[in-house]
Amino acid sequence: MYYDQDISSVFGELRTSEKGLNPEDAEKRLEEYGRNELKEKEEASIFKLFISQFKSILILILVIASIVSALLGEAVDAAVILFTVFLAGVLGFVQEYRAERAIELLKSLTSPEATVIRNGNEKKIPSTELVPGDIILLQTGDRIPADARIIEEYNLKVDESSLTGESVPVQKVTDAFPSGTSEADRKNMVYAGTAVAYGRGKAVITATGMKTSFGELAGLLGTIERSRTPLQESLDKFGRWIGAATIVIVAFVAVLGVFLGFPPLDMFLWGVALAVAAIPEALPAVVTVGLGLGVRRMVKRHALVRKLPSVETLGATDVICSDKTGTLTQNKMTVERLYVNGQTLKVTGVGYNPEGEFLKGDLEKNSREDGDTEVSGNDIHLRVLLLGAALCNDSNLYNEEDGWKIRGDPTEAALVVAAAKAGLEKTELDLNYPRLAEIPFSSESKRMTTFNRLEDGPGNFLDSRLVAFSKGAPEVILGSCTKIFLDGEIKALTPEMKQEISEQVKELADQALRVMAFSFRPFEEGFSPERVSSGEIPAEKVEEDMVFSGLTGMRDPPREEVKAAIRTCEDAGIKTVMITGDHKITASAIARELGILKENDLTLTGSELNSLEDKEFEDKVERVSVYARVYPAHKLRVIEALQKKGYVVAMTGDGVNDAPALKAADMGIAMGITGTDVSKEASSMILTDDNFASIVSAVEEGRNIFKNIKNFIVYGLTCHIGEVLIVLIAILGWQILPLMAVQILWINLITDGLPPMALSVEPPDRGLMRQKPRNVEEGLITRREITAGLGIGGLITVQALIVLVWALDSGFPINKLQTMVFTLVVLSEMFNAFNWRSDRYSVFSLGFFTNKALIYAVLTTIVLQLMVVYVPFLQFAFGTVSLSFSEWGVILALASTTFISVEIIKYLTGRKDSRKNMNKVRHSSRPRL
After folding, report:
1. pLDDT (0 to 100) of residue 227
2. Which end is more exposed in the chain, N or C (fewer Cβ atoms within 10 Å of the end residue's Cβ)?
C-alpha cells in the first residue's frame, strides 16, 4: 500500500501534489478521516464523576447514620446530614472536574506541531490536524506525526526502535519496493511515533490516527500520563496520618461521651461528623486545581509545563544551565565582519534587511565612516565566500508586508542576508546551482557540507562543475584545509597562514562575535555525491583536502531583559551557567556582559572538561559559570556533577542529542521555537519564546504555586486542629458537646470549600525571589507548619472555650451556647484565611484587595453563616438561635485575635529577619554557589 507505487501514482491515489492540499480540501478531509490522534480509554462521564464523590468510607457511614436517624424518628437530623453530604459531594465534584479540565488543557497545550506544505506554502499546524494527502517536511529531531511515503530525502535516517525494536537508524529512500515487502523493510515509508535521527526530507501522509501502524497497536496512552504528583502522594500520606490520629481521638471521646451519659446515637453521629471534618480528604483535588491554575498562568509567561509534578521542582531549582543562542541572546544574528583574501571587512546593516555594504576601514564602527573604502560585491573572493555560505545553508529569506522574515536557523539566515547584500539571492542560487547531496551538520562534527552542481562558476577559478561547500567551527574547517583561495588563485595553505587565520579567529572572538569558517573542494566529473549520502564513501574522506575561503563574524545581541533576570536569579540564590558551542573567548565576553561570569569564576571548554577526572571536575563544578565549545554529551556530565553536590538542576536544550541531558536534569527545559520534537518530548517544560527570562518567570510562578499550596494546607490544618481540640476539651472539662454533628459538617463544608480555592490564586510575594530555593528533602509539612497549625488551632480553641465559659456563667441555654461557638469558629477561620495569604508578609503590605477572590469567598461564607443563624427553617435544621448585637461583638472581638496575633508575629519576625539579612550583607560577598 503506497510503498509499492512510484511517487506520481501515490500523488494520484491520494489526490494531492508537491504543492500539498488547499485549506478547503484539508478541512473536508479532516471531517472525513477525523483528527490525527490516538483514541484513549473512554473518559468517565460527569455523572460517574459525581457519584464517585460518595464512595468515601466516612461519607457512606454518614449516609447510614442519616438512615438510622430517620428510622429512630430524627427526620430533621437525617435530612440535614444528607443535605450536607450532598453539598460536600457537589464541592468535591467541582474541584475534581476542574482538576480534570486542568489536565486536559495541559494536554492540548502540549500537542506537537508539524511543518506542512499547503497551497505551496510552508506552515506549522498542530499534528492533530494532519490528513492523508498532506505534504510534511522532516528535519533531524522531528517526531514523525503520521504514516507517510517518502517523496524527497537528503541522507534521511529514521529511528524506528519504538515500532520495530531495531536500534540502528534506518536509511530512507524514495524508490518503490515490490509488493509483499515486510513493513520493517519498506524503506520508502516513515511511521507515526518514530523520529528523524539524521538528514531531512519530504513525505506525503498516507494514514493518520488509529489507521497508522502505531495506532493499530493496543494499549497506547496519550502524551501526558494522568499520574498522581509527588505532592499529591505526600498529601495522601499526611491525610492518612492525620486521619488515623483523629479517628483514635474521636473514638476515645465518643466512648467517653457514652460513658458520661450522652445518647449513643448522638455520640455516633458526632464522632463520624468530627472525623469527616478533621480528615482533609478534599486536599488532593484542591492541590490539582491549584497546580492546573498555576500552569495556565505560566503559559501566559511563555512557559509551558508538560507534567504537573514539574511545578513542584521549579521552586527548588538551585542552578539553571542555559544555552546561549536565542535563550540568553536575541537570536537575530547579523554578520558584522568578514575575513577574506587576507583582510578583514566590516558589513553594514542590521537585522534581516538585505541592504548593506562591505567596507575596509575603522573596524571599531559597524556603520560607514569617513575614510572607509567600499569593496564591490563582485569581488571574486567575497563572492566565493558568500556563495558557499548561501549554498551550504538550509535557511531562506523572504519579504512580507511587515518586513523581511527568515525561515530556518537564525545563524544560517544571517549568512543568507550577507550573501544577498552582495547580490547573491538564495532562491536564485538554489535554482542555478542545485544541491545534489549533503552531509548534515551534527554537534559532533561541528560542520555541514553540501555538493552543488555549478554550470557557471563565479569566475575562472573552478575547473570542475561539481563543488563541495563546507561551513562550521573554525578549528574544524581549518583542520580539514590544505589549500587557500588567495589573490584569485588556489594556493597551498602554509603553517604561517594557518597561524594568521587562528589569530584572526581570536581577534573576532574577542569582540564577542560568533566566528564561522568556510571552505570548498572541486571534484572531477564522474564523482558521485550519492555514494557519500548512502555511506559508501565516508564523510571524512570528502571533507578533507579542502580549500579555505574565509571567516564570518556575527553578533547575536544579548536580550536586555535577561540581564535583569540573571540578577533576580542571584538574589534568589540560583546560579546561572552558560553552555554554548561558541569559542571560549566569545562565550566569556557575552557572559561577562550579562553578569553570569564574575571575578574568580571559571570557564571550561569541552576539551578541558574531557581532560578532567570525575573527582577533579566535581571539585571545580561549583566555580564554573561558562562551558564553551562543548558537545551535548558534556551537558550530562555537568548535570551529574551538580546533582552529586546536592543541587536541583534545570537544563535547557533544543537538539536531538540534548534529550539525555533533558531527561537527566531535575527540570529539562526545551526550546519551543528552535527545539526539535525529540527534545520537547524529553523535557519537563517548554519555553514558547526561547527566552531565559521566561525560565526565571516560571521559577517564580513555581515557587508561588508551592507557597500557595502549602499555605492553604496549613490553613486547613489549623481549622481541623481547632475543631477537634474544642470538642475534646469541652467534653473532658464540662461534659458538654459544644458543637452539634451537623454544625461540624457545615464548618467543614464552608471552610474547606471556597477559601482554599481563593488562596490558590494568591499572587507572588514581593520577596519570593529573594528567598533561597526550597530544600527538596524538607517535605511539604515541616515542624514550622505543624507548630503554626497547633498554635493557631490552639488559639481558636481558647477563643471557643472563653465563649463557652461566658455562656455557662450567663446561664445561656445549650442551643445558644452551641450557636455562639459554631459562629465563632466560622468567623475565626475566615480571619485565619487572610493570615495564610502569606506566611511572611502582612496582609496590609500585600495589599488588602490584591486577592479579590478571597474577599468574595469570605463574604459568601459569612452570608451563608448569617442565613444559618437567622433563617427560621435553617435554624431548625442546624439547631441555631438568633444572636444579639452584644453577643456578635464578643464573637467578633475574639475571632479577630486570630488575625491580629498572627499580624503581630509577622511584624516581629520580619524585623528579626531584616537584622539577620543586614548582617549577612555585611559579612558575605556571594551566594552559596
Report:
1. 45
2. N
Number of domains in the chain: 4
Q: Check whether residue 456 and residue 503 sit in a common domain.
A: yes
Taking a C-beta distance cutoff of 8 angstroms, is the pair 455, 432 a contact? yes
Neighbours of 616 (CB within 10 A): 10
What cell does 425 get?
A: 539571492
Query: Residue 687 forms beta bridges with which residues?
Result: 303, 671
Cα–Cα dist 490/619, whole Å = 49
Phi, psi dihedral angles at 146 (to 5 degrees): -160, 170
- In the chain, which residues have pLDDT < 50? 106, 218-227, 229, 458-461, 918, 920-928
Instruction: Check 323, 409, 556, 658 and give the catalytic one.
Output: 323
- In 3D space, the residue among 345, 309, 366, 442 whose CA is nearest the CA of residue 776 turns out to be 309
Helix-, strand-, coil-residue percentages of the chain, each rounded to 5: 50, 20, 30
Buried b (16+ CB within 10 A) or exposed e, 52-62: ebbebebbebb
323 in active site: yes
For the stretch 201-255, pLDDT in tens is 999 999 998 888 877 654 333 443 444 545 655 666 666 666 676 677 667 777 8
In the structure grid, which three cell numbers stand for residue 480, read together? 580539514
pTM above 0.85, yes or no: no
Residues 565, 669 within the same domain: yes
Domain carrying residue 893:
231-302+698-923
Distance separating alpha carbons of residues 551 and 585, to the nearest angstrom: 16
Question: In this structure, are residues 927 and 861 in contact, taking their beta carbons and an 8 Å threshold?
Answer: no
> Phi and psi dihedrals of 579, rounded to 5?
-125, 125
Distance CA(142)–CA(129), nearest Å, equals 17
Residue finishing a domain among 550, 571, 589:
550
What would the grid cell of residue 269 be?
Answer: 453521629
Do 473 and 596 have their domain in common? no
Longest alpha-carbon distance in the chain = 116
Among candidate residues 658, 57, 611, 622, the one with its CA nearest the CA of residue 322: 658
Decide: 603 and 625 in contact? Cβ < 8 Å: yes
Span 827-873, pLDDT tens digits: 999 999 999 999 888 998 888 889 999 999 999 999 999 999 999 99
